[in-house]
Amino acid sequence: MVPNLLKHINSPVDLKKLSKSTLGELAIELRKFIIDIVATKEGHLGASLGVIELTIALHYVFDTPNDKLIWDVGHQAYGHKILTGRKEVFETNRQLNGISGFPKRSESKYDDFGTGHSSTSISAILGMAMASQLNGDDKKQHIAVIGDASIASGMAFEGLNHLGVTNANVLIILNDNAIGIDPSVGALKKYLTNVKQGTAKDENIFECLNLKYSGPIDGHDLPKLLKELERLKSIEGPRLLHLITTKGKGLKQAEENQVTYHAPGKFNKETGELRKKGAVEQPPKYQDVFGHTLVELAKKNEKIVGITPAMPTGSSLKYMMEEIPNRAFDVGIAEQHAVTLAAGMATQGLVPFCNVYSTFLQRAYDQVIHDVALQNLPVIFCLDRAGLVGQDGPTHHGVFDLAYLQCIPNLIIFSPINEVELRNIMFTAQNGLKNPIAIRYPRGKGTTLDWRKDFSKIEIGSARELKTGSKVAILSLGHIGNEVQKAIARIKDKTKIAHYDMRFAKPLDMDLLHKVFENFNHIITIEDGCKIGGFGSTILENANSFGYKGHIRIFGIDDTFIDQGTIEELYDICGLNAKAIKQYIEQVL
After folding, report:
1. Is residue 398 within 8 Å of residue 117, measured between CB atoms?
2. Is 363 a catalytic residue?
3. For the whole model, what pTM was predicted?
4. Which residue of the set 31, 249, 285, 363 is catalytic?
5. 335 has catalytic annotation
6. Per residue in 504-550, pLDDT tens?
7. What DSSP state is assigned to residue 108?
8. Which is catalytic among the residues 68, 247, 443, 582?
9. Is 385 among the residues known to form the active site?
């Protein structure tokens, strides 16, 4: 064994100096490097371990960055980052002021396209290839690596449909490991399984789309992979290489428990065992409260159904899928389909809970407007990961939902301050609403262990007075209200501070709001979303209509994309923590 091969590689130029016979040893070193760092720094693991050989082969065969290379979603791009000059800073991955956990154009010339949401790679690489043709560059290669879960998405098929009628110099590499974050689902998964087993029908779906198909081949067989990529490099036009890989390859636990080891947190790099949490019991995560509550409600209300676009574990719809599988549906990476499927169910009297990450609902905006709100269908949207989500960064922060949803007629918007409020609004919604509702809640732990209380119905459009006061009124929306409570607790003269949990961004509690306008000269609004078009902006509009003469200060996220970091660090940067709130209140007082 030739030791320390990775030590001398700072770019693909260095990689190409190695003999083919040593690349297998490099794969071992690269896997170990990723495991060692992710074990202590956390991050996505299984996806990158599964494409180590592919990553080495691509940069060995092709002339990156002159040849264009896109990694769909980007969970699997750690090896790519390490081989393209970011080895020395890889330990800063997903940390404040560190490198991004996803490909990012501003970070490296080797990151040809920013990713973070799935299924965009085929359209993007085709755009690059068509641009090369228009520029007279017919020799440049264009490669997109996409997983079997991502290629099932509508946008990926839109790209394939267009690609097949071009002569663009594009190579699609289908990384088929039968899993995304959760196991892949749907008819295409069954078809690919048949292909792998040699039982597929005579016609190949990709050849029918006019792509030159090759495979399936073992994506961990480096010699075979190098040979096939060299062959495909000499072929013109649209091509698709079908690879069979194992997510988590090289770490036994990651291979055996692929869902958990997608992003396992901290673990023992030698044994692979997960680090145990502290013995002190912690409040549950909001998504787990959602999941358990949905099961509780669905057992009593047979009309309830659950829908998620490929996130049953992350969203905790898995609990309903386990206990009531005939009424819980993972529809794959298909947010548009998920929303309109829910709309169709609602027309027939079912009570659909459509569970989507806030950042992913952006992909189904037209369906929310046209298929749900315009027809005033009572779909219940449960928006997980609303607000700042931490180390996944700007592609995953759910900071735009308030702004993009508030302008839609008929839509109710609710944000709970704690887990009990989440349970109560779910109970209220399934009891029967005349309108669709979006319930937005954050990633991570709630506030209390005592959350399994009896259900109480919430009056739509009603706010709550959490604290009386005489001079400053604070209007908060959602979980961020807990930061307000921390701030107030640190102020000596608390009698002048009133705190209202508005709960509903739409409809607003106008009776309470008018009382606030009449009795307070200073109003503070606080939200974990963008200021432009957000909750505070709506309060300001109403204040202007009312003729309010006092001062309004909006706490929220400025007109910028927020990078990665812990929630605490990002709250600090955005001025949304208790310290910043306290400082401003004391200035007013």
Report:
1. no
2. yes
3. 0.93
4. 363
5. yes
6. 999 999 999 999 999 999 999 999 999 999 999 999 999 999 999 99
7. -
8. 247
9. no
